[in-house]
Every structure is written in C-alpha cells, then in structure tokens.
Design brief:
Length: 328
C-alpha cells in the first residue's frame, strides 16, 4: 500500500491555510505534542482493544465524527446529553437508536483527564478516533496519517439541526446540496461515501428497495439478484427492521475499495450509495476508485480532513469539556 509523503501534508496544509486562514493557523498536527504527548498512544491502544472485542466500533466512530461535523460544525455537540435548556442531537431521528460509540469516547476521555486534565477537547477526540479507526481497519498494515488538532468544544447542541443530516432516504441531489452547504464538493460526496466500506445498516434503511421500490410493488431492478434474495430473507417484515446487513458484504471490517467495486456490480446496499452510479460525474469517480485503491485512500484522507474543519471553534471560543456529555 502506498504511503503519502510529508510533502503531501505540507501541500495540503498550505492549501487549507489558503482556504481557511483563521482556522488552520490555530490547528496543527502536533498541537498536543507538549501538553498531552500520550494522546495518540492512548487512543490507538484503546481502539485496538475495542476493535478486537467489537469490530463494528471502527465504523461507528467514523460515523459519529461525521454526524458531529454536519451539525453546527465539528464541536463535539453530538456527544452532549439533553439538558433543561436544549434538546441534544442523540435523539434526533437520524441518530436515535443508530449512532454508537459514546461509551468508548467516555473511556478515552477519562484516561486523558487523568494524564492531561482539561487539555484535549471532545471535538478533537472525535477527529482523532475517526482517523485511527480508519488506520486500524486498513490491511495489510496501518496507513498512518496525522490529524489536524486544536478544536474547542461547543456549549450547546441542536436536535432540529441534527434532523437535517443526510439520510439514506435522500436523493443524491439532496445529499449533494447538504454537502455543498457545508463547504464540501461533489467529489467529497463520493469519497466520504466510501466510509461505507466498513459498517452495517439496519433493514429499515434499505427495505424499500426489496419489496416496494418507488411504490411499484416490486424490488429495485438495479439491485443484484443474489444480493436481493439474501436481503429479502434477512428483512422479511417490519418485525426485522433492526436486523443488520453489512454495507460491504465481502470485506465488512476492512477499509478498502470494495465498496466501489460493489457499486459497479449493482451491489450497493443503500439506495443513496447505488445512486452514485446513476449520475455521470459521480459514476466516473466510483469507477476510478474501484480500479485504483491507492487513489481512494489518498482522497479519503484529504476529504476527511476537509470535513473535520467544518465550523471548528479555536482559540478562546467554546471550552475544553472535562466530561464530553455535559458542558463544564
């Protein structure tokens, strides 16, 4: 597997500084080198142990970071519990009984508070765990990349904004519009959708493709027939809506380019995923990533970092929460 040189990071950092000078001048790859040098080892060790016991946690942490950044920016707001003054994001429709990993974040945060109290933000913790979750899911060996750090935590959350998150029931046009509204591009839609190379989805998120696609009373004609039969047995009725199916049935826990290869063969699980093959611009990117995994890894790292800069708080903004579930 190819590795990106330090030159790549220098060019990327210069580009990010040009695009967002106030943010990037206060974020750095070595932000905690002096104040909390054990941050990365603690995250890596904890995540290795967690993934050995529950492989799904990697995809869950990556998704948690995504759901945080798309609601009022990457400020750790998704971790906040409801209070008397605001309704948090955990019980918003896209998140309820869906997003996971809160307990894992609590465990790492408690370790960090012991070795470097009031130092590492919950927003940064989401960013670095997401990055390491990808690293540790790559085979044959980790594809280490640094993470820009220095975010501060928000002091409120918004259930109403979380209800606007991209949904598996959205059209590709609506999803693209939501990405663009956050400063991302069509390419980022395709690249970040590649996160579905790991993880699982509940039956209710794709069941409409199995029995009554677009109210036709028939299955989605674009869905591979063998995959259709498997899914119809897995999700036969409403009593099985929470059953889980792998987003990539071939390498469910390995971060590779199989997701794109599945789409080319009409074996995408979610309608929003397979829709990438129904648009000329996105389809060309899908085909490219299906053939060149190294390009996908490089572009995914860049898009993930780009997403991780959405609406970040820096300097004296926000706070550094001691407990990620509540404001100080």
């Amino acid at each position: 597997m190819e590795c990106t040189s330090n030159k790549h990071y220098s060019v990327l950092l210069i580009l990010l500084i040009f695009l967002s000078p106030l943010v990037c001048c206060q974020l750095s790859y070595d932000f905690y080198e002096v104040t909390c040098p054990l941050l990365t080892p603690i995250v890596q060790t904890s995540l290795k142990f967690a993934m050995a016991n529950e492989p799904r946690i990697a995809a869950s942490l990556l998704r948690l970071h995504f759901h945080d950044c798309f609601v009022n920016g990457c400020d750790g707001s998704v971790l906040l519990d409801d209070t008397s003054t605001f309704k948090g994001e955990k019980n918003a429709k896209p998140n309820r009984n869906s997003i996971r990993g809160f307990e894992f974040i609590d465990i790492i945060k408690s370790k960090l508070e012991f070795v470097c109290p009031s130092t590492v933000s919950c927003a940064d913790l989401l960013a670095i765990t997401a990055r390491e979750a990808v690293n540790l899911s790559l085979l044959p060996f980790p594809y280490w990349r640094p993470t820009l750090l220095g975010r501060r935590d928000g002091t409120t959350a918004s259930e109403s904004e979380a209800n606007k998150l991209p949904s598996p029931f959205d059209t590709l046009q609506n999803i693209t519009s939501k990405f663009i509204s956050k400063g991302l591009e069509v390419k980022d839609v395709v690249v970040l959708s590649g996160a579905h190379t790991i993880g699982f989805a509940q039956c209710f998120t794709f069941k409409q493709r199995l029995f009554n696609f677009n109210s036709t009373g028939k299955p989605d004609p674009s869905l591979d027939s063998s995959l259709l039969q498997y899914l119809q047995k897995l999700c036969p009725d409403n009593y099985h809506d929470t059953n889980l199916a792998p987003l990539d049935s071939f390498t469910s826990y390995i971060f590779d380019n199989m997701y794109y290869r599945n789409l080319v063969k009409n074996s995408g699980l979610l309608q929003t995923d397979q829709a990438l093959m129904h648009d000329a611009m996105t389809a060309s990117l899908v085909i490219n990533y299906s053939e060149y995994p190294g390009q996908f890894y490089q572009d995914f790292a860049a898009s993930l970092e780009k997403m991780s800069l959405i609406g970040v708080l820096t300097g004296q903004q926000g706070e550094i929460r001691k407990n990620c579930r509540v404001v100080n």
